[in-house]
Amino acid sequence: MSVTVLHHALINHKLTNIRRKETNTRDFYQNVNEIAGLLAYEVSKDFPLVDVEIETPICKTKQHVLGCEVVIVPILRAGLGMVDGIRNLIPTAKVGFIGLYRNEETLEPVEYYAKFPDNIKDENTIVLVVDPMLATGGSAVAAIDMIKKRGAKKIRFCCLVAAPIGIETLQKAHPDVDIYACAVDEKLNEVGYIVPGLGDCGDRLFGTK
Fold first, then answer.
1. What is the second-level CATH architecture of the domain 3-206?
2. What's the confidence (pLDDT) of residue 109?
3. Burial 149-164 (b: 16+ CB within 10 A, else e)
4. What is the structure's pLDDT at 107?
5. Helix (H, G, I), strand (E, B) or coil at 3
6. What's the maximum distance between 2 C-alpha atoms anywhere in the chain?
7. Cβ contacts of residue 30 below 8 Å, gap of 6+?
8. Looking at residue 1, what is its pLDDT?
9. Which residues of 102-114 are buried (b: 16+ CB within 10 A; e: fewer)?
């Protein structure tokens, strides 16, 4: 498994925007959406291609198209904020859903919903599990456990901000899953939030408390 931390001026700029506590819901959502698109560009750079013959206005030529199916699986709620940004870049992608919430006392994930497209188990399908925050790693591990039980074979985990312990936990549980993050922060605080982080991403995306 590899861990890829993106170093891109636009990503860093937009991450600063969503870290600011005064950023409003509209601007927060827009920046998360845009960062997800930039992240998808990096995640997809080694997707397989197949040759096709097409005809341009000038002549016939052999070119390339994607040789895989893509399924995006957001971890609800916050993962929803990343879906549109990725689908803008990969509009043929299908979307599955995993509903998990964190028990505030144990910090362990609890499942409440799961629904996936049929092609999630196909050999040529790449599954992008998306969640803005990789904190304790518990939700990511649980989500990937569920996806593997449905037969998924090629899985990549995509997040905006990760904590070192979250990366370690996910690597230990699923060493075959590559991790893509826009930033790795310092640590978790006593209640399991990433420091410096950006707060509760789901609440900030949807204006809830």
1. 3-Layer(aba) Sandwich (3.40)
2. 73
3. eeebebbbbbbbbbbe
4. 66
5. strand
6. 65
7. none
8. 67
9. eeeeeeebeeeeb
pLDDT digits (tens, 9 = 90+) for 28-68: 999 999 999 999 999 999 999 999 999 999 999 999 999 99
Question: Counting beta carbons within 10 angstroms of the beta carbon of residue 193, is it exposed (0 to 12), middle (13 to 18) or buried (19 or more)?
Answer: middle
The residue type at 13: H
Half-sphere exposure of 116 (CA within 13 A, CB side): 25
Local structure of residue 14 (DSSP, 8 states): H
What tokens appear for 22 in the block? 């005064």
Can you read off the two tokens belonging to residue 45? Answer: 């750079």
- Measure CA of the first residue to CA of the last residue in the chain; give whole Å: 36
The β-bridge partners of 115 are 97
β-strand pairing of 60-66 with 69-76: unpaired
Q: Where are the beta strands (DSSP E) in 103-186?
A: 109-115, 125-130, 133-134, 154-162, 178-184
Catalytic residues: 102, 106, 200, 203
85 and 128 Cβ atoms separated by less than 8 Å: no
Which residues of the chain, if any, have pLDDT below 70? Answer: 1, 102, 107
- Planar angle of CA 128, 67, 80, nearest 5 degrees: 20
Side-chain-side CA neighbours of 59 within 13 Å: the count stands at 2
CA-based R_g, the chain, Å = 18
Q: Which helix (H) or strand (E) holds 134?
A: strand 133-134
Domain positions in the chain are: 3-206
Question: What is the C-alpha to C-alpha distance for residues 139 and 119, in angstroms, rounded to an integer?
Answer: 23
Overall pTM surpassing 0.90 (yes/no): yes
